[in-house]
Write a structure and sequence with these properties.
By secondary structure, the chain is of the alpha/beta class. It has a single domain (2-144, 185-232), classed as Undecaprenyl pyrophosphate synthetase, CATH 3.40.1180.10. Helix content is 44%, strand content 15%. It has helices at 2-7, 25-31, 36-57, 76-99, 115-127, 144-160, 171-175, 223-234, 244-247, and strands at residues 17-21, 61-68, 102-107, 134-142, 188-191, 210-213. Strands 3-4-2-1-5-6 form a six-stranded parallel sheet, sandwiched between helices. Helix 2 (25-31) packs across helix 3 (36-57) and helix 4 (76-99) packs parallel to helix 5 (115-127).
């Protein structure tokens, strides 16, 4: 707690769940006259730094938008390189996760991943399932619209099979069909690279999420930038549809 005070953070106001749209790897590489893959490699270093910083700060849930469903449309060599990086990350970081009590979780159309990546992902998730320090969720082959459609299809199937009644379909029960059913809604969304878009990410879950946009490109994002985002978050008044007077 003392270290948080040194950083200027209020220990009692740390967001429980932080979600990040990691954007800017390609632009980072272009500015340095490097290949796009070099930007992605540097982006993995940023992931390591932010995961470590999040754990130190006391964030309980960290969700990273790693690969969207739309990303499959990118050039094949880039997609293959990204899958290789993900596979290597899972191998390299397993011991670090275990030592620091980090549970790995994943959301998305995971079965569309290459078999070796899918199997390795499931393996690391299983090996870290007992960890209770922090939950790191990777959104991979993820799209929020697809997630919502998947939930609706599951509900329709259960209605047809008479497993549930129509009146049992509520906001709370709907959330139990989402890929994020085991996660709290994000308190803070961070988007790097200065883009003001949600990009089909956690549309249902971010009804009351505070949004922070930074011009920093993802490969340059680290503990300092994360603290700046949380300080901005702590300066806001979260009302959840109420008035300021009602919160007093």
């Amino acid at each position: 707690m003392a270290s948080l005070k040194i950083e200027g953070l209020d220990p009692g106001g740390i967001p429980r769940h932080v979600a990040i749209i990691m954007d800017g790897n390609g632009r980072w590489a272009k500015r340095k006259s490097l290949r796009r893959i070099n930007g992605h490699i540097k982006g993995v270093d940023a992931v390591r730094a932010v995961v470590t910083a999040s754990r130190e700060i006391g964030i309980k849930y960290l969700t990273l938008y790693a690969f969207s469903m739309e990303n499959w449309k990118r050039p094949k060599d880039e997609v293959n390189a990204l899958m290789d990086l993900l596979y290597k990350y899972l191998i390299d970081e397993l011991q670090e996760m275990l030592e620091n009590e980090i549970r790995l979780n994943a959301i998305g159309e995971l079965k569309t991943l290459p078999p070796r990546v899918y199997e390795k992902l499931l393996g690391v998730m299983q090996e870290t399932s007992h960890c209770q320090g922090m939950t790191l969720t990777l959104a991979i082959s993820y799209g929020a619209r697809a997630e919502i459609v998947h939930a609706v299809q599951s509900i329709i199937a259960n209605l047809y099979k008479k497993k549930i009644a129509r009146e049992e379909v509520t906001v709370d029960s709907f959330e139990s069909y989402l890929w994020t059913k085991d996660l709290p809604d994000p308190d803070l969304l961070i988007r790097t690279s200065g883009e003001y878009r949600i990009s089909n990410f956690m549309l249902w879950q971010m009804a009351y999420t505070e949004i922070y946009v930074t011009e920093t490109l993802w490969p340059d994002f680290g503990k300092k930038e994360l603290i700046e985002a949380i300080l901005d978050y702590q300066s806001r008044e979260r009302r959840f549809g109420l008035t300021s007077e009602q919160l007093i």
